[in-house]
Batch of 3 targets.
Target 1
Amino acid sequence: MTRLARFERAVLPYLDAAYNLARWLTRNDQDAQDVVQEAMLRALRYFDSLRDADARGWLLAIVRNTGYTWLEKNRPAELLAYDEASANVEESAALWGAADSNPEVIVLQSAQRKLVAQALEELPLAFREMIVLRELEDLSYKDIARIAGVPIGTVMSRLARGREILRRTLESRMRKAS
Amino acid sequence: MSPKNESPAEPIVARDAPYYTAPPGLSERVRARLATEALRDRDPSRWQPYAIAASLLLVSLVSWNAALWHERSSVDASALDEAVDAHVRSLATPARLTDVVSSDQHTVKPWFIGKVDLAPPVTDFASAGFALAGGRLDYLEGRPAAALVYRHNAHVVNVFISSLRERGESAPVVSTRKGYAVARWRGGGLAFEAVGDISTTDMGVLVELMRKAPS
């Protein structure tokens, strides 16, 4: 089997996962497609570094890196917001426990898809990517930490803070809607 | 991937958000670009339009290579000089010393994914006096290299790892250069250059730890 054929067999099954992450990072279909194409080329170039590692996590790490490079070039303002967000999150780790098993959450699970999607899109990048990887991609904290290159504690605190912001946004919107 | 089971009571707020699947045609476009990219390295006819430019380049390359051939013995020396310079640069800008700050090899190793064309062996040797402080992307001889940062007491050691074009092993050589202890060795398709203001004995210890560590 050629190198390309091996690559396609190992990596292309995760095209949807790659696109979903790129779509949530860029919040735009065409930009997401550009990021995916670029990420796939990079992935082919670095295919030898995959070895026996998990191909989905490996690919998502490359998509994320490519997405950040793209944002740096095209929408640097979003990355500034990212710095402020990450500066504040470390202290919010305490929210992790507070947000657990909140009955309101169950109500929110049935919220309209459109409201949820909109609120998630508005979430600052650093929190948005954590929630996408965790709740849409079903990854473990450990895998997310590897993909994003941050400690597991940071993954947990950003997830907690992201969920808290999302929950508040949804609550206030649903109150307005009803 | 392990299933998501860290916290059964974890609140779920975004399950109703859409999972965007790849739009129609993206798979075909990706395949087409991958095929083009794969051909680029193999198909010589692709380069025919550039033949004239290439032959001009060849002249300069041949003379450059000839010069290199004569200076073969100093190639290792210049690589070590570059490693020492990169080490000094990294100390001059503490913020740039570690792009990924972690003593956890499982955080540092994957950080390099998609940034360099190799998977560097990353092990923390804190119990032996060399604590992993993190890593960053650096450049040696114009090529990206993975730089691992170790702390030995108050001293910083940079280990630069780059991929070798041809496979080959070479035993470590420890020496000093511009007042720094330096070491250079090759193994497993990788070239290693270590630099630090530590004693050559300590450098020898780190080299042995790295060579014995599983990759």
Target 2
Amino acid sequence: MKKILLTCFMLVFVLYAWAQDRTVSGKVSDETGAGLPGVNISIKGTSQGVISDVDGMYNISVPSDKNVLVFSFIGMETKEVLIGNRSVVDVTMASDTKQLSEVIVTAVGIEQNRKQLAYAVQEVEGKSLTESQEPNLVNALNSKIAGVNVVSSSGTPGASSSIRIRGNTSITGSNSPLFVVDGVPIDNDEVGEAVDGVSNSNRAVDINPEDIESLSVLKGPAATVLYGIRAANGAVIITTKKGRKNMAPLISVSSSIEISEVNRLPEMQQEYSQGRDGVFRGPSTLEGFSWGERIDENPDLEGFDSFETFFINGINSDNNVSVRGGTENISYYASAGYLNQQGVVPNSEFERYSVKSTISADLTDKLTASVSANFVNSGGVRLQRGSNLRGIMLGLVRNTPSFDIGNGKTGQAAADDPSSYIFEDGTQRSYRLGIYDNPFWVVNKNFTTDEVNRIIGYVNLDYDLSTNLKVNYKLGIDQYSDRRLGRIDIVPNWNPGQIQNDNIFSKDINSDLFITYNKNLGSDFSIDALIGHNYYRSAVRRNLTTGNTLSQPGFYNIANASDVISSETISQRELVGVFADVKLGYRDYLFVNLSARNDWSSTLPEGANSFFYSAASLGFVFTEAFNVESSIFSFGKLRASVGQVGNDAPLYATQNYFTQAVGSGDGFIANATIQFPFLGNNAFEQDGTLGNTNLKPELTTTYELGADLRFFENRLGLDVTYYYSETSDQIIPVEISAASGFIERIQNAGVISNEGIEAVLSGSVIKTENFGWNVNVNFTAYENTVLELAEGIDNVFLAGFTSTSSRVIEGEPFGVLYGQAFQRTNEGEIIIGSDGFPLQAADPAIIGDPNPDWLMGISNSFNYKGFNFSFLWDIRQGGDVWNGTNGVAEYFGVTQETADLRGEAGQGVIFDGVVASGTNTEGETTYVPNQQQVDLNNNAIGIASNRWQRYGFGTLGEENVEDASWVRLRQVSLGYRLPSALLGDGPFSTVDITLTGRNLLLFTPYTGIDPETNLTGTSNGFGLDYFNNPNTRGYSLSVRLTF
Amino acid sequence: MKIIKNIKFNALVVLLFVSINACNLTETNIDPASIAQDQVTQLSLVLPSAEAHMAFNSGALAARNPGIVVQYFIGLEAQQQQYSQYLIPRNAMDNLWVFGMYGGGMKDLNFIIESTSGENAINAPYYSGIAKIYMAEALGMLTLMFGDIPYSEAFQGDDGNITPVYDTQEEILQSIQTLLDEAITELSTDVEGDIEPGADEVVFNGDPDKWIATAYSLKARYHLTNGDFTSASAALANSIKSNAGSALYPFDASLTSGNPLYSFGDFERPGTMGAHPTFVSKMSSDPRQPLNLPGGSFVNGFWTSQSSPLPIITYAEVKFMEAEIEAQQGGDATELVKEAVRANMEFMGVPEEDIIVYNLGISNPSLSQLMNEKYKAVYPNSMVSWSDYRRTGFPALTPPSNASSDFYRGSVDDIPERFIYPESEFLYNVENMNAASERQGFLDGDQEVLNAVLPVFE
């Protein structure tokens, strides 16, 4: 009896305990460990809930029969947590990466709900940029966004990178997208990147990727019409990190170090010595060739690998600290960072100091003001490159295998020891005694230092006129000074030396005023409208002073020059625009967006300087419209848009000018061409550009169709876009016959089409509590075709040399490679001459296409408890690069291939082709297959018989165009976040350690350096490799702490 | 309502902003670093540019590539080696045509000629005369390189003609004579209040008499090229009379004022071109040898040091023309040749006794011997020697054994007769260029060739 009573009593007791509410408390944090205030914590199955406090703490009373808490916060993934027996439940909220936050920053800095967008946009998190370990923001975007193609010009510290969204459309104007930081357009120009000289930076390199919260890429005119003509090639919208109200200060410190090495070099021989015809001729003979004797047959000779001797490991270090937080009315962010990059070439360097602060304050309950200032000091040591007797790669590649450039030492040790590059009498120690510079001489004596001081800042005012009406005014300034000192030291007997003071001062002012109106009309309609005014002014002044013929070796000041020429150029333009945008929403599934803009530009003729363009887009979420309920197909949206954007003329194109004369006419005499004053006289000459007072603005019209489809409860997403655009009335300086008295004429001419597909496939393959696997694939394919050029013109030069260049040719893809080719029959067979060798054609021809067929980036990321492992493959199919370096290297006999084929293996070769055999009855030449055997090299006859010398210096352009497709492992990273248990009550909230590999593997048929290269930097011509500096791979370790 | 008032106010502000800003944008589009074309009135600012272009170019591509052809020079490496093997593609002479001549010095000369004629003419006959002499020389240089070239339709780009037709070589040679005649007339006038060149003209400082003598000498040169001995003799009567009257382009000892043969050979492209064995052997027992080929190199010689002048037309060349006419007409040119050789040697500073000894070897010279002497004396004026070779066949020159026939019709049995039209014409004026090539017989199938004889030499 007693037992039964006890059991009942216990049962009742237990039941009673169960029936009671229990209190559950804990902390809600974000990924950085910071407490998240304002998180909604509700009990699943009830309407009860609480909100987390300032520190992210919460306390909730849960009925005994409920066991699940739901944590939700905007922009974060909603989390459901089983309470179980716990009384303390801590939760970390993660950003809603799949949907990539419902909020996207679009034109003029306005945040938009992604669902409402009817055009193609793609977003990247700031974290993804810093993980790439690329100091140049543009490089960090590589392979991450569909439609975006990034090509870095080389792996040198501070080297420029070009970025193209949907290819090239403008022949001579800029094809770069507009970079906008916090709503203020900034300067991303690169001043000066010719076929020789040093490698300069594009100015986005000044932005510290650590300061970036997120980045969205707007691709077509429908998205960018509100930015006007400067965004005709798309826009990269960068949002920097900001503070948050009511947030305790969160300090974040990060430090990383990377070791880099050259990733790919052409194969060079170490078998044959300096000399010709099989005979050794040493440095004192000034012999340029390496067609000498076998090194292993001469005990006095030794073979050296010049690349091994020269390149070193580079070291990068990047240190940043930031603090963000906020009180009730003020939020703030401040950061400081220091980047130091030492390259794989001794003495090459790039440094960046960056200090940034953004403060936002609610002045009244209707008026908010914010101020931001970013001060950057960047610069480095840049080395001569490219087509340049004083450049690194030229001297390094042509160096003969029997000469040791390091004189017994290698790398930095050789660079630091003058005995490797200079004799006691001051003359240069190199294989040709100074005709080409020993690379160790170059890094010590032919370098340019630059220092950029830049400030990017803005003042922003937001005023709420009423609940629906807001006014916003933003005044931004981007100003920098770039002082460069270029040095080429005296080379006794060969070069009188040169100093260059190049001072660039640039100032951009941008003012935006707009009024926005948002309202829900009834329950079905919503309207968001905007009208605005924009004023932009840009002025760049460049003072270039060149001093030739130095007196004192090693003294790099303009006072050392006996012959000084000075010039000042000023580039200035102004733009005024007014614009309007209306978005209508119907029941949150149908969206219509109309926008229009009118611009006035200073570069168009007086009285005709205004132009108008507009865009319309439609978005339809059909899954909601038709109430599609499916566990497989969870979301579907169709997008259609058509938009136009205009573009203005180059500067000063509306009239003819006289400029200070230069006595030119010979490409070989570049430094010593006649400059004025000459013999005591100054002179002016008619500028070669024929102006045009009838210029009209360019117009690009784009049609875009897209779909955003998601499956399996949004675990798998596919976003596809197809677009077609045409740019007409292109304003081009078209080269014309010089016999007209002018070299080029500016005119409206040219229609370029651009057609492509972009697709992004993202999937959360596995998702459990402890383990996750996400895949993201982006795919880009586009074709730029030159439909028409001007009347009588079918060929425009973009970049390169008179021998090989990248051009715009009617009917062909943009930027085709053009140069010397073989003579061919009508059927395309090569015509062989009577000496058994293929014949060179008198007329140049199209020899390659540098445009890729398609690009793909495949990223996999795995996370298991605190570990995170991800890797990114970058695949490019198609795209030719002219390997000009190889053509010259073969001529000199330094490539492995010439070593292999100059002996027995190269005898009795029959070239594939046909020989003329007579004429037929109609007078046409007939051909028979070639049977003639020739020796590729015969020392008895001498250099004259040499196959690699036969077509002259650099051989034929056609012979050196190579396929530059690649499969590349661009990024691998393994990261670990220390468990919070380990950190306990210590000062740190989170500690992350990450190992990253950059550019670790490269598979490509290209035989030279890494084919992601461009001789002319960010210019419109591309696909040229002529003694470009090689690219690098890197291994890094980074630690990130928050407290 | 307050809101509407605010909207109205803001709209007004915007409108105001807009209307103010839209107005004065054109001033921003005037280049602060250049002079607008209609503001240029001082011919003394333009003539030096024209002269510098003529000077530089006559010593750059116009001296080297024809020099390689007539074997003053030989290519040792790089592009120069390729040219020595007669692989002289379209792009080899492109810079000369585009940046040196038509788009360089010739457009400035045309500007001066147009500014001094027609309505609103500037009163400056001497500028006009000198410009016409240079224009004649420029046309002469180009037509003897290529054949037919544009002239009557040239320099009309701003009137819309960007594809000028090619005048025939005969028309060009006629234009040359007309220009020189007009120049002589203008330089002989003495007009009140005219603007005259002075220190801005660096060859003769504007001296009209010296320019007149030069014009006559050029008339003789081009009449002789045409095979017209009578007209040539008539012109020679008024030509340069002494070394002091030789027309020479001056240079200076600084990097950007230097002699272009020096600049090329000394540091721009050292080791890529050297003195040709043919020239070296002809100089072997000549007292000018150490002056032309110091240490065996062509650089730093009398005509190829940084401040060395380069010839437009010299007294020595004039004398050789007289001598040749005499010899061609069956006379004894001994004294004329001796005087010609002496003229050149004296100018170069050869000691008197060496001149006398050398001249003892000249006696009733054959045409071959005469032309050999001229070849040595006019160095480095490659264009003159190339004309002489094509006209007379002397001095005898054999093509190198490694010459390529890629740009030849048939095999290589003689030195090139011309250069193929430049790449810029092929790209931007191809119809007119092809028409000219066809009518002159320059094509082998559809390949333009180097060994097609120019009309004037047929």
Target 3
Amino acid sequence: MFSLLESRAQDAPETAAFAEWHLPDGATAASFHRTGLGYLVRFPLLADFEISNDTSAITCHPTPSASQATCRNLYMNQVLPLALSKRGKLVFHASAVELPSHRAVIFAGPSGSGKSTLAAAFATAGCPFLSDDGLVVEEADGRKYRAVPSHPSIRLWTDSEHALLGVGPQPIEAPRSKKRLGVKTAMAFCDEPRQLSRVYVLGDPDAAAPRFEGLGGSQALIELIKNSFLLDPQEPSLLASQFDRLARLVAHVPCFRLHFPRAFDALDSVRHAIVVHAGNPH
Amino acid sequence: MTGKFSVPRHVMVRQLGDDRVILDVTSGAYFGLDSVGSRIWEMLSQRHSPAEICERLALEYDVTLERAQSDLARLMDDLKANGLLDVD
């Protein structure tokens, strides 16, 4: 259960950080602390999130200058995926779309790599999206995996929004650097799990044309580790379980690195190339 | 090189094809081994001596004994430095 509480200043936490996320310029994006009741995830100058040990309760104290919209976005895009990872779910920095084959493919990569724009490009062309980030993948029937739908919205940079949607859906929230666009009729959303057929790790943004590079098992495993949410990397049992399940996933789902140009006028050809590639036997 | 080596309990290894990925569950750090490194790891975990490993490497990969010794020493230094291998 998520509760947005009164704003307060960010006092020194009870314990030192056991992990940190950093921005490209080296500034701390988030710090992770243990507390008597669970965890504190601090987004400097924005908000503190307290997560109970069993993850059943998540509370947010915004800083006085942070908006409710910012807090909700941090919760949906960062904190909720972290909580799900603590519950033993496989959660990725990845978007997912349903192809005409009714199978899902996922696009994994860090913020800014193009996964939300790719998801939106598919969704505006009639291929529903399941998630734009914080994607949960579940094991089903032994060797099969499925992508699980998350919130029916996509966060796009302003130029992506204009290129894909023109005037398009009205923004329903205004996060710090992207707009979260509610899905009305312009973007199709898939609200049921779909069997996962391919994992695409986003690669070279300077590629002149879409190019697919097969990833061997160990490369694929390392890429999925890098693109996984994990609240507590120092909890050995959870880490070991995640490692095991990721190793099984890459053994059963073909993984590729997708190099493609990040130009809006190339999105149609990129989308077509992915549909063709995913439809070919592997 | 003398002595036997063992894999610490906090280290997990998964083989995928010819490669292996090693995870240190206490630090969360992970490492990839290519096919040659993976073969060396396999022999280390089977508790072959460094001398035996070098002989097998030289034979299996058609390299000189000196080359095998150099490759083995470099990998073992890396593994020990990262806490992934214990010296008995």
